[in-house]
């Protein structure tokens, strides 16, 4: 019984070539001109379309056309294609395709996981299955890969893995050999869809992961960019297909009571400054030539997020700050990616609310630039923000005490913090703007903070008008 691994381009990758030797690699966000390559390399790369080929078959193609000197260049391009998440890996036994490993982000370096025949494995509680087009897909918010099933035996194995099984035990399934079971389990483990079970039948899960509920981690990973390949932002995918709802819900009853409407312009002149601030609040996406100052950053943070006091409630320590928080959890933290600020060097800083100071996480580097460029893109303007405030959540501060609503509660806290930041910035004549999305995977890489323990959940830019 022979086993092999087919390499192939993702479905959205295509190769365009013509009689003039043009050879272009295309996708929705990629255009790579490879016209300079040899005939053998072009043939091998074109073969990656469709079903694909093994690396040995690709090497034979290059050798037959170019000779062996071009083999290192073939392996270089394959490595680069894998690195940038363009290549799928399909396991095949006796020329029958079982399942395909598909990257959903730019891939990190990885190796095929090894399977021990006598060790028990169990489907991860974060793994889930759904239909995508004509494919049956398994994925997990723990992973940056998905698995597409090609053979009914793989579905049968997945069903058995609801309970801990050894590779040998799976051979009881009709037409499932030890080689098939081992190959498929290796693919699942590589995609982080499996848990290893130790001798005490205990699931290998960290304390951090244990406090995540399935839907919360899925909601977090799928509602933020960095761990899926779906479109983020405006795409107008239902334009011309479904009529949008009106901005105001239509009135359905004639039994109404007319309420008093205050004169807001009069309130701006006679009432407390709050009404003027509230009605003047708006997003200012472009910052002026004058940089924000250290004093202004300090005043802003003190008015928005300083620690007022610490007190105790049953089972946990709580605090109070200027904005509200459910259960006085205050799981939100503020990190400043500073591009330009009078009195503070560029870098990434953490705000310490108890002592009202900034601690530096990292100096100016490529990660700082990447965070600022990501914010610029999500802001929709050509200029980098003066200061990017990244709001993170220490998830266990909420998930420890709350079930089912933990992540939605965190997002509510982000909303009230946004409003507090807007009002304070307006009162100080600064330029504020909340952003609709960010990249927590990039933030985790930039700071080294555990993605699952504390991750970015909101972004806010601040500067001078």
What would your notes on this structure say?
- With 465 residues, the chain is of the alpha+beta class.
- The chain has 3 domains: 88 residues, Alpha-Beta Complex (Outer Surface Protein A, domain 3), CATH 3.90.930.60; 111 residues, Outer Surface Protein A, domain 3 (Alpha-Beta Complex); 201 residues, 3-Layer(aba) Sandwich (NADH Oxidase).
- Helix content is 31%, strand content 25%.
- A 6-stranded antiparallel sheet has the order 1-5-6-10-9-8. The protein has a 6-stranded antiparallel sheet with strand order 17-16-15-18-20-19, sandwiched between helices. Strands 2-3-4 form a 3-stranded antiparallel sheet, with helices on one face.
- It starts with a strand and ends with a strand.
């Amino acid at each position: 019984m022979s086993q092999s691994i087919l390499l192939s381009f993702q479905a959205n990758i295509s190769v365009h070539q013509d009689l003039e030797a043009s050879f272009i690699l295309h996708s929705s966000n990629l255009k790579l001109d490879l016209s300079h390559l040899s005939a053998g390399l072009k043939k091998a790369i074109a073969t990656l379309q469709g079903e694909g080929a093994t690396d040995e078959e690709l090497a034979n193609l290059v050798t037959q056309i170019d000779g062996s000197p071009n083999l290192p260049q073939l392996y270089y391009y394959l490595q680069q294609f894998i690195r940038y998440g363009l290549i799928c890996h399909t396991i095949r036994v006796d020329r029958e395709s079982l399942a395909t490993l598909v990257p959903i982000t730019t891939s990190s370096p990885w190796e095929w996981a090894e399977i021990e025949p006598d060790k028990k494995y169990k489907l991860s509680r974060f793994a889930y299955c759904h239909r995508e087009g004509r494919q049956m897909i398994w994925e997990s918010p723990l992973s940056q890969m998905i698995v597409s099933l090609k053979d009914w035996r793989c579905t049968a194995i997945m069903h058995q893995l609801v309970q801990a099984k050894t590779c040998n035990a799976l051979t009881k399934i009709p037409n499932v050999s030890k080689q098939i079971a081992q190959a498929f389990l290796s693919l699942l483990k590589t995609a982080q869809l499996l848990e290893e079970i130790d001798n005490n039948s205990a699931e290998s899960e960290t304390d951090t992961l244990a406090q995540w509920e399935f839907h919360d981690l899925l909601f977090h990973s799928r509602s933020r960019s960095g761990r899926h390949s779906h479109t983020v932002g405006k795409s107008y995918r239902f334009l011309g297909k479904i009529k949008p709802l009106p901005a105001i819900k239509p009135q359905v009853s004639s039994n109404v009571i007319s309420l008093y409407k205050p004169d807001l312009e009069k309130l701006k002149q006679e009432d407390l400054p709050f009404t003027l601030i509230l009605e003047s609040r708006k997003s200012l996406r472009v910052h002026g030539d004058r940089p924000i100052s250290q004093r202004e950053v300090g005043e802003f943070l003190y008015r928005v997020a300083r620690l007022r006091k610490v007190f105790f409630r049953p089972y946990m320590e709580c605090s109070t700050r200027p904005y509200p928080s459910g259960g006085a959890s205050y799981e939100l933290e503020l990190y400043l990616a500073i591009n330009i600020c009078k009195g503070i060097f560029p870098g990434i800083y953490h705000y310490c609310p108890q002592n009202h100071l900034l601690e530096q996480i990292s100096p100016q580097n490529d990660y700082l630039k990447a965070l600022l460029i990501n914010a610029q893109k999500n802001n929709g303007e050509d200029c980098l923000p003066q200061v990017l405030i990244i709001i993170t959540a220490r998830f266990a501060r909420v998930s420890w005490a709350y079930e089912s609503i933990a992540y939605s509660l965190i997002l509510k806290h982000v909303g009230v913090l946004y409003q507090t930041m807007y009002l304070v910035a307006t009162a100080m004549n600064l330029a504020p703007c909340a952003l609709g999305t960010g990249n927590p995977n990039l933030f985790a890489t930039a700071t080294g903070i555990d993605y699952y323990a504390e991750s970015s959940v909101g972004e806010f830019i601040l500067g001078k008008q």
